[in-house]
Specification:
454 residues, 5-stranded mixed sheet, 11 helices, 17 strands, 31% helix, globular
Length: 454
């Protein structure tokens, strides 16, 4: 994935009003963050043309299809803040500048010289005033859900008043992105057209969030719930936008990984004898954990339940002390040894099998550890949210010093600084109990905290 597990999809914003066909060369590696599927499940727009294109809404409430407590549940929400007349964007265009759907893109060429061909330009998503609710499997439902929770997280962030102003986002709903897929079959290697599916993607270069379509394979094997119906997912993606706004990462230097929510089917681990974990890899893991914490601190309790959702249940639950397969979320000796190992795992693993070389799992450990440690001192979500924002600022402020360290040193030093920042902010000294708690979360971390060595 590109730039802290993000995808390079900058053409979605740049080509929004372009010709029907446009060629764009990319002199960079393409990391596919999605499942390649031959059977994408594309939704239709409920109302293609509004009865009156100049009419204004008389009621700003909609019934959204939300995944709550294991089921799709209807909830009435006031969406005035994300509707600009009939367009799905906030009127001031400070949060979501535009929402698009219907884009079709084809990717061709070798990885070192990729060509994007725009077959159909995206269309601005409008919400007709005669509509008050939508079936779950419609373009409007996907867009309204995503926009509502992006705006909710943005409002909680700006309400703290301590972070920088953020760029407005472009929101892309279910673009069709195709490329060739190679598989070894009866007649040797065979190529076929495949679609990018089953993920949600933040792109810092274009300041965009993209929701890909799900595949029929996902529908059959992983359940029928859509990512945009799960409040945590759009909130998590906006958490990446907050982190980017604070850290202002040099995206070209951190294009390393794939998948915003990991590989849905399996994590393909190929032999790489010269594997080396850098501070940028650790920073990518922090970014994932940060985004999980943002959703945890900005959503309501009922919106944080995603039991039954493959890849998210238990593993991405910030309060869960273990992963789905029972492995503990601690920076123990074996975990650190695996993460910083120079030998890459060779076996395939599903997203529900713990992989300590995947930054999503390392990020989940950070999210759990941060929440558990801060909870020893406060129950306030706002106070915890402020601390992780201040910590992201600290990572940026001390970037020059931190990035001179080796990967393992970077993780140890920056995690210790998070613990010290948390205690200092909440007026708590490192007594025996707090030092023991820190050591449970990260083996050997007490050595980095002077008060724990008196």
């Amino acid at each position: 994935m590109k730039s802290f597990f993000y995808l390079c999809l900058s053409m979605t914003a740049a080509l929004s009003c372009g010709r029907k066909t446009e060629l764009v060369k990319r002199k960079s590696l393409l990391h596919n963050p999605a499942r390649l599927s031959a059977s994408p499940y594309f939704y239709e727009k409920k109302t293609v043309s509004c009865q009156d294109k100049s009419a204004k809404r008389t009621d700003d409430f909609f019934s959204l299809n939300l995944f709550l407590f294991g089921n799709i549940t209807m909830r009435d929400k006031n969406l005035a803040e994300i509707l600009d007349q009939q367009l799905l964007r906030d009127p001031a265009r400070k949060v979501i500048s535009n929402t698009f759907y219907g884009e079709r893109v084809k990717i061709t060429g070798p990885l070192y010289d990729v060509t994007f061909t725009t077959l159909s330009a995206p269309v601005a998503l409008n919400i007709c005033p005669e509509d008050e609710s939508f079936e779950e499997e419609t373009i409007e439902s996907a867009g309204l859900n995503a926009a509502y929770f992006i705006n909710k997280t943005h409002s909680r962030y700006t309400g703290l008043g301590i972070g920088p102003a953020l760029k407005p986002l472009t929101l892309n709903i279910m673009p069709s992105i195709t490329q060739k897929k190679s598989e070894f079959g009866m007649n040797g290697w065979e190529e076929s057209d495949a679609f990018w599916t089953d993920n949600a993607i933040y792109n810092p270069e274009a300041s965009s969030i993209t929701f890909l379509p799900h595949s029929m394979e996902w529908k059959r094997t992983q359940g029928t719930v859509n990512f945009w119906a799960i409040p945590m997912v759009p909130s998590h993606e906006y958490g990446h936008h907050i982190f980017q706004g604070i850290y202002q990462a040099r995206t070209s230097s951190i294009h390393r990984h794939q998948g915003c929510f990991g590989s849905i089917n399996s994590t393909q681990q190929e032999y790489a004898p010269d594997r080396k974990v850098s501070p940028f890899d650790v920073l990518g893991a922090y970014n994932e954990g940060f985004a999980d914490l943002v959703s945890f601190y900005t959503l309501d309790a009922e919106e944080l339940n995603f039991d039954g959702v493959s890849c998210l249940q238990v593993t991405r639950n910030v309060k869960s002390a273990s992963f789905y397969d029972g492995q503990l979320k601690t920076f123990s000796g074996p975990v650190l040894e695996s993460f910083f190992s120079t030998s890459k795992l060779q076996e395939n693993r599903t997203c529900e099998q713990t992989n300590y070389q995947d930054i999503h799992f390392i990020g989940a450990i950070f999210a759990y550890s941060a929440e558990r440690f801060m909870s020893q001192m406060t129950d306030s979500s706002d106070e915890k949210f402020k601390i992780i924002i201040e910590w992201a600022k600290l990572l940026k402020a001390k970037e020059y010093l931190y990035l001179r360290l080796e990967g393992d040193q970077y993780l140890r030093k920056t995690f210790a600084d998070f613990l010290k920042l948390s205690a200092r902010t909440l007026n708590r000294r490192f007594d025996q109990q707090l030092c023991q708690e820190a050591e449970k979360l990260f083996t050997g971390i007490k050595a980095e905290i002077p008060e724990c060595n008196l």
